[in-house]
């Protein structure tokens, strides 16, 4: 189920890892978890269901425990997802924006076969009040699909800076559809200039011939980054090969300070790649603005086949755009060659 992908650990035992001297290694067969990846707020199926109905909830801040609380009460008159079976299995999900990666999502239980679910659950965030007041609350309702393609049923977004914190009562809010710009990811976050290459096992002559396959990622530069503060952007790139989010999968570039058009010229090499792994793996590159206390997510790309599946398991990070899929496919078909591309960053 796509929204619980961050809570599942995958165990693969197909291959043994072959260490590579001087390279950054990712064992595609290791025990791994996707909990470290930046997951999408809007993963799932948008087009099949029209948003309708209302949601009842209340907000509160517990000063003593420094905890933001979302009291989710119930929903009414939600859309029917499976009309043949007259079925909707809804749950509610929340994010704090814009830094959804750091704060993470919270969600209620799933209620089966109802368009009027009753939850009476509290979703909690440990967060300082002054930090909370620069956030927005995104609350969305989803149909839970056992095959992993969850359907969006509607949402509401609240600016917490203008929220009346003396109002602790349950209130009803109409669920709204997603705008086309948000669904299609056309909000401009910058463009990454990079090259990638796949070296199959045993494909090179001489001592550099890799015993297992390698993926090379050359991060060149990024243009037109979001500037979150007046002093500029101190940016760096994180890289994972999903589903592996262990320390050995994690790589990052240096920090380029006060520049919305940073030049990195940084190459990352992952070994342990067998050719069949390319169908199930995903290279996730994310841009971050560095600060002393926390890093702010700026945008990212995911390179893979975008099938929604990894080793037969539904995952929501296998959501590559058409451009990203085409880039990955070109690399797969032109082995041992650098494939160049300019890819727009998106709000993963």
From TrEMBL:
<dbReference type="GO" id="GO:0042043">
    <property type="term" value="F:neurexin family protein binding"/>
</dbReference>
<dbReference type="GO" id="GO:0070382">
    <property type="term" value="C:exocytic vesicle"/>
</dbReference>
<feature type="domain" description="C2">
    <location>
        <begin position="188"/>
        <end position="318"/>
    </location>
</feature>
<protein>
    <recommendedName>
        <fullName>Synaptotagmin-like protein 2</fullName>
    </recommendedName>
</protein>
<dbReference type="InterPro" id="IPR043567">
    <property type="entry name" value="SYTL1-5_C2B"/>
</dbReference>
<keyword id="KW-0472">Membrane</keyword>
<keyword id="KW-1003">Cell membrane</keyword>
<keyword id="KW-0268">Exocytosis</keyword>
<keyword id="KW-0677">Repeat</keyword>
<feature type="compositionally biased region" description="Polar residues">
    <location>
        <begin position="1"/>
        <end position="12"/>
    </location>
</feature>
<dbReference type="Pfam" id="PF00168">
    <property type="entry name" value="C2"/>
</dbReference>
<feature type="region of interest" description="Disordered">
    <location>
        <begin position="1"/>
        <end position="27"/>
    </location>
</feature>
<feature type="domain" description="C2">
    <location>
        <begin position="51"/>
        <end position="173"/>
    </location>
</feature>
<dbReference type="GO" id="GO:0005886">
    <property type="term" value="C:plasma membrane"/>
</dbReference>
<dbReference type="InterPro" id="IPR035892">
    <property type="entry name" value="C2_domain_sf"/>
</dbReference>
<dbReference type="InterPro" id="IPR000008">
    <property type="entry name" value="C2_dom"/>
</dbReference>
<dbReference type="GO" id="GO:0006887">
    <property type="term" value="P:exocytosis"/>
</dbReference>
